[in-house]
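Example record

One chain of 92 residues, shown exactly as stored in the release files.
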Amino acid sequence: MKKKKVKYRTIFDHRVKEQMPDVIKKVGGEFKIMPKKYSTPGVCDIFGDYVVTFNSVDVGNFGEDGTIFVMKNKELAENYRIWFQFIWDHLG
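Predicted structure tokens for this chain:
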């Protein structure tokens, strides 16, 4: 992302800041932290026409029990971008 100068933003679960603060620096880009009240083991990546969602039990450890869904749909990806923007704007 850095080499191609692609701008990106990340919303991290509060546990990442607490348990793996070095990951925030490694990921780079703009970021915000979700409040503890909204903590989930889920992750969602949106890029191009793709939405990738996955779930893991522990922060930073996908493990054998994780689940991944990859969806390719332009309209769906745009919906997720709108939802992301809403969350981003309300995190302050």
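Notes: The beta strands are 9-12, 30-33, 42-47, 50-55, 67-72.
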